[in-house]
Amino acid sequence: DDDDDDDNKRQNNNPLSLLQRVSAVRTMVLTKEKKGMLERKLAKYTRKNPLDQNNIVRGPNNLVFAKEGYITVKRFIRLSILRTREEYHCIGKFTIKEFTGNNNNNDDDSEDETKNMFPQDT
């Protein structure tokens, strides 16, 4: 027990250990601030652009898709050796009518359905 107490005292008095703890606290504070900022942005976006239930299709794993949209291709245009610019070209329009299969996420089958939709290499 005395050896453990001595080790704890040495760790608490070690400047590197103190610096690591301060750094960890700083990282936690920055992460919490970033989370708060992202939550505020999400709330603002949700207020500005409410989800219209008539224009969405629910997919597996609680994903939400737009019923209609555009298919675009991003192309990088070289302006100089160090500078590029992004351009988006619309190549078509899509419409989703429905997802086939079981879309109820409360069933145990929904996980199996997702595995069938996105096969994984083994």
Model description:
With 122 residues, this protein is of the alpha+beta class. Helix content is 45%, strand content 24%. It has three helices and four strands, in the order ααββββα. The strands form two sheets. Strands 1-2 form a two-stranded antiparallel sheet. Strands 3-4 form a two-stranded antiparallel sheet. The relative contact order is 0.09. Residues 105-114 and 116-120 have low confidence and may be disordered.
Approximately what portion of the residues adopt beta-strand conformation?
A: 15-25%
- Total number of strands: 4
The count of helical stretches stands at: 3
* Biggest sheet: strand arrangement: 1-2
Order of helices and strands: HHEEEEH
Structural class: alpha+beta
Task: Give the biggest sheet.
Answer: 2 strands, antiparallel
Mean pLDDT: 78
In percent, how helical is the residue content?
40-55%
- Shape assignment: elongated
Question: Uncertain regions: pLDDT < 50 for 5+ in a row?
Answer: 105-114, 116-120
Radius of gyration: 26 Å
The N- and C-terminal alpha carbons lie at a distance of 50 Å
Task: Draw up the topology in text.
Blueprint lengths: L1 H12 L1 H34 L7 E3 L5 E3 L1 E11 L5 E12 L13 H9 L5
Antiparallel strand pairs: 1-2, 3-4
List keywords for this structure.
about 120 residues, alpha+beta, 3 helices, elongated, about 25% strand, two-stranded antiparallel sheet, disordered C terminus, two-stranded antiparallel ribbon
